[in-house]
């Protein structure tokens, strides 16, 4: 693979990757450098996801929509750019087998048991 020294114009920046998740198992990396913007803290230096199954990802919202349309157990192909530490990016492609998304807030309308 060749390095790209072009500015990245679109994609979804991976700020963090939770331990034990499909993203971590596939080798996707989050940011390791903390920075500030007018909107708050931001972790930079992580992978930039540029496509899912060949569909261009232009934003984090679009990434969430693509993944939200998939099912647990589906395997997706993720194309990403990884900073090479020399001002450029290395293109990479990884396969990710999706898991069930944990519920962060219990739904009171969901029967228990």
Number of helical elements = 2
Secondary-structure content class: mainly beta
What gross morphology would you assign?
Answer: globular
Helix fraction by DSSP (H/I, runs of at least 4): 10-25%
Poorly predicted regions are 105-113
Question: What Rg do the Cα atoms give?
Answer: 16 Å
Element-by-element helix/strand order: EHEEEEHEE
Q: In total, how many beta strands?
A: 7
| Main sheet characteristics | 5 strands, antiparallel
Beta-sheet strand percentage?
Answer: 25-35%
Distance between the termini: 50 Å
- Give average pLDDT, whole number: 83
Question: Keywords for this structure?
Answer:
113 residues, mainly beta, 5-stranded antiparallel β-sheet, two-stranded antiparallel sheet
What does this protein look like?
The chain has 113 residues and is mainly beta. Strands 1, 4, 5, 6 and 7 form a five-stranded antiparallel sheet that branches. It has a two-stranded antiparallel ribbon with strand order 2-3. It has two helices and seven strands, in the order E-H-E-E-E-E-H-E-E. The longest helix has 9 residues, at 60-68. The radius of gyration is 16 Å and the shape is globular. Helix content is 12%, strand content 33%.
Summarize the structure.
With 113 residues, this protein is mainly beta. The chain has helices at 22-26, 60-68; strands at 12-13, 33-37, 40-44, 48-52, 55-56, 75-83, 89-97. A hairpin with a 5-residue loop joins strand 6 and strand 7 (89-97).
